[in-house]
Amino acid sequence: MGNKNNRFSDLTNFKRNEKSRYIPVAVQREVSTRHFFECAWDSTPITHQHHIFEYAQGGLHTPENLILLCPNCHDQVHKGEIPIDELIKRKSTHMRGDRFPGLLLTNTENHLIRIGGSSFLNVQDALIVLDEPMISLRIENGRLFLSVRFYNKKGDLIFWMSRNRYWAPSSFRILTSRPGEIRIIDRADTDHYLRIWENGKSICITGNSYFKGIPIKIDERKIAIGPEGEANIIVGGGVINRPFGIVVHALNGFRH
Length: 256
Ligand SMILES: [Zn+2]
Known about the structure:
This protein has three helices and 17 strands.
């Protein structure tokens, strides 16, 4: 076993006795029950059993090494779009109905994104903070796909959108009045929110949240990254045909 696999050692056994690729029915039942017959990642009620540590690499058919995922999330895990560490964390913290899944439906002609007064057109990663993309865009077959991640103050992932599919915690209030709009507000802290909506030919994003422990405030005119008084303020501009939009490498005077 290579060193990189050591942290999974309790989920694997290279001398396993199992001869079958098929997961025993009793184990499948236990995993399904543990995850309330819903996708552990986004609560979609159509599920597959996924080996956290892959069977082909020695992962076992055990309830500890299996998680329920919907076909879409399963696909994203295999493409590396869902971080394995988040998935492992989710396995132990998943509670029934603690997330709701959704889909952002937008006009297919809208390819312009407005974030904090800045416009982005044909930009792959609109906002990158300390090496991690927070807001990304892809245009495929003439349609815009948006990916967004928001964290809370403690560093927990609290909003996930990948290719317009999303989940949000049920501890948030959802105010969605039409298909091209998502508005979620933390019931415990109403200053903590996210809004994505269509406005004419563009899709706009505003919100107050945290990303990698850093406060991020996006209103309709500016993006403020960092704590009050020390924030990097980015005021409107335009970015087109570039792989990266706004990249924040470091925050002066900011500790995390
Ligand atoms: Zn899913």
